[in-house]
TrEMBL record, chain A:
Any one GO MF annotation of this record: ATP hydrolysis activity
Record key words, sorted: ATP-binding, Cell membrane, Ion transport, Iron, Iron transport, Membrane, Nucleotide-binding, Transport
Keyword Metal-binding listed: no
A Pfam family it matches: ABC_tran
Species for this entry: Vreelandella songnenensis
GO cellular component: membrane
Descriptive protein name: ABC-type Fe3+/spermidine/putrescine transport system ATPase subunit
Coiled coil: none
Domain (ABC transporter) ranges: 6-236
PANTHER family hit by this protein: SPERMIDINE/PUTRESCINE IMPORT ATP-BINDING PROTEIN POTA, SPERMIDINE_PUTRESCINE IMPORT ATP-BINDING PROTEIN POTA
Automatic annotation (TrEMBL), chain B:
Listed Pfam families: BPD_transp_1
Domain ABC transmembrane type-1: residue ranges: 68-256
Name of this chain's protein: Putative spermidine/putrescine transport system permease protein
Keyword Calcium: no
PROSITE patterns, sorted: ABC_TM1
CDD domains, alphabetized: TM_PBP2
Family: Belongs to the binding-protein-dependent transport system permease family.
GO CC annotation terms, alphabetical: plasma membrane
Coiled-coil segments on the chain, per record: none
Biological processes per GO annotation: transmembrane transport
Length: 346, 270
């Protein structure tokens, strides 16, 4: 078994006077798939590069299994990384690219050939040995880059937005392909992404980051249903917030603000007692394929709701959100009841 | 309309002819002088043609062979020396943060901003004290100096064009810094480094002033031989020397051209 657990303690990175990462703690269990999720500039790529050894730490420690990585140069860490640009070496063929890490480890020529052929078969790119990497399509490059990282059988795989340079259709198919491959190899994997859908679909554990801090570490389900604070909720597609009034449900929770997703707010639902209701004037109605997105101007907010039938702008409408879809936040914008920032993943 | 249609190719042709004359006229004159036995003032063309001056130039005692040998030797040594310095310097500069880099690069260019005659005179004075005057080493050093500026500039541009993640990928997969430099960075930078070598080589081939102050009279290169011949009114010898001077240049260009295409060259500094 090559797979190992990764532990980050107090990881802090400064660039000049600016603090890029502030006191990051993280436990990644062996064989799991962890996504570092956050908007650009939140420090997720810096964290990945710190694990790979390209960004020096100001403080803190990184451990992989029983090894301390903190003071090792990148080449001694065995943390195979797939770069966003793939970073395939253009002066080498596919075979040379894949074989180079093996060459560095003194693997004989015939053995290298065998392993490269094996890897290409696994990537469903058999017979590509002699191809120039510059002649490959985006998806093929991505797979070669992945193969080059996996060929050394690393204890940890680092992926830096590996799918972001591909078009939507290939990206979707590669998501499940990548996840299948990761599961079959059982390799501990950390992937950086800014795409919440990608993170929710692929990860066992999501690390939500913002401005150099970890906001929440949890399973995709928990993250989606119980985001730690309002900012996290907005990042995860909770696009409506309303201030609680006495008529609203969940009075005992102490909630000051409710967040809900557009798809949970309905205009044409039968009235129900345990629901949040807001009335207002329709200002916009947009067709989305499975229905209509309606923008409603209430007194204190503009809210989005869904409707099966079109609604004329200017008319009055009432939107209704079931209690189960409401996400309660306290006066400090934090989720109620307060969540443990580091939930343990079984 | 029709006049313009007919006239425009004519004008274009005339312009092209003029440019061709400006570019190739002197070369043609040179070629005629190289094969002229007799060519006196009122005549537009030489009155006698032949190879007798060629025979004179290549007589063992005439020194053309030694000069050719010296020229090529000095040029190769200047390339080797300046590239040996420019590769590490260019790499270090390319990996510098940008403001610091531009300051250093400008400082580096500064000696080139001065008229080079006083510089060479001073170098000659210093080399005289060190006993380098009239030696091949001295001449190589004086040739490598301007070459080094080109070489460092081009090498810096080339190395900064090499995508850093390519090196990082190599480090990440187990290559030491030196190994990733030789296996990844150097091959990526090769076209630019070859371009830099061409510049240094061609610059050295027809370098005159420095050689004159530091090398003469012990070390004679082709430009010096040519200078002596033209000063002595011996245009045939000067022309023949000039033609010989083309040989290493053209040869070098051909060798480089084999594995360096124009489109690769144009990538330099991108």
């Amino acid at each position: 078994m090559s797979t190992e657990a990764l532990t980050l303690n107090n990881v802090t990175v400064d660039l000049g006077r600016q603090r890029i990462l502030d006191d990051i703690h993280l436990d990644v269990s062996p064989g799991s798939f962890t996504c570092l999720l956050g908007p650009s500039g939140c420090g997720k790529t810096t964290l990945l590069r710190a694990i790979a050894g390209f960004t020096p730490l100001s403080r803190g420690e990184i451990r992989l299994g029983r090894r301390a990585l903190t003071h090792l140069p990148p080449e001694k860490r065995e943390t195979a990384m797939v770069f966003q640009s793939y970073a395939l070496w253009p002066h080498m063929s596919v075979e040379e690219n894949l074989g180079y890490p093996l060459k560095l480890r003194g693997v004989t020529r015939t053995e290298r050939r065998r392993k490269v052929a094996e890897m290409l078969a696994r990537l469903e790119l058999s017979g590509f040995e002699e191809r120039a990497v510059t002649k490959l399509s985006g998806g093929q490059r991505q797979r070669i880059a992945l193969g080059r990282a996996l060929i050394i059988d690393p204890p940890l795989l680092l992926l830096d937005e590996p799918l972001s340079n591909l078009d939507a259709a290939i990206r979707r198919s590669l998501r499940s392909e990548l996840r299948r491959l990761q599961k079959s190899l059982g390799i501990t994997t950390i992937m950086v992404t800014h795409d919440q859908e990608e993170a929710l679909q692929m990860a066992d554990q999501i690390v939500l980051m913002r401005a150099g801090h970890v906001v929440q570490v949890s399973t995709p389900q928990t993250l989606y249903q119980q985001p730690a604070d309002l900012g996290a909720a907005r990042f995860l597609g909770v696009d409506n917030t309303v201030t609680r009034t006495p008529q609203d449900p969940m009075g005992e929770s102490g909630a000051v603000t409710f967040g809900f997703r557009t798809r949970d707010a309905h205009l044409d639902a039968p009235p129900c007692p345990q629901a949040l209701i807001r009335k207002g004037r329709v200002t916009e109605c947009v067709y989305t394929g499975d229905g209509y997105h309606v923008l409603i101007d209430t007194h204190d907010a503009e809210l989005f709701a869904t409707s099966a039938t079109p609604v004329a702008p200017g008319t009055f409408a009432a939107l209704q959100v079931p209690e189960s879809a409401l996400i309660p936040f306290g006066p400090d914008d934090r989720h109620l009841p307060p969540l443990d920032r580091h939930e343990d993943i079984a | 309309m029709t006049i313009a249609r007919i006239a425009s190719p004519l004008v274009l042709g005339a312009l092209l002819g003029l440019v061709a004359f400006i570019v190739f006229g002197p070369l043609l004159n040179l070629a005629m002088w190289a094969f002229a036995e007799q060519w006196f003032y009122p005549n537009r063309l030489p009155t006698g043609w032949g190879f007798s001056f060629w025979e004179r130039v290549f007589r063992p005692r005439a020194g053309a062979w030694t000069s050719l040998f010296n020229t090529v030797l000095v040029a190769c040594a200047a390339v080797a020396l300046s590239m040996a310095l420019a590769i590490p310097a260019g790499y270090a500069l390319a990996r510098q943060a940008l403001p610091a880099r531009s300051v250093i690069m400008l400082l580096f260019l500064l000696p080139q901003a001065f008229p080079n005659l006083p510089i060479f005179v001073n170098i000659a004075a210093i080399f005289y004290q060190w006993g380098l005057n009239g030696t091949l080493v001295g001449v190589v050093l004086v040739h490598a100096l301007p070459g080094l500026v080109y070489a460092v500039w081009i090498a810096t541009a080339t190395f900064s064009a090499v995508d850093r993640s390519l090196e990082e990928a190599a480090r990440n997969l187990g290559a030491s810094p030196l190994r990733s430099f030789t296996d990844i960075t150097l091959p990526q930078a090769l076209p630019g480094l070859l371009a830099a070598s061409i510049f240094v080589f061609l610059d050295s081939i027809d370098e005159f002033t420095g050689t004159f102050f530091v090398g003469a009279p012990e070390i004679t290169t082709l430009p010096l031989l040519m200078f002596n011949a033209s000063m002595g009114g011996n245009y045939q010898v000067a022309a023949i020397t000039a033609l010989i001077l083309l040989i290493p240049s053209v040869g070098f260009m051909l060798v480089i051209e084999r594995f360096l295409k124009a489109d690769v060259l144009s990538r330099v500094g991108r």
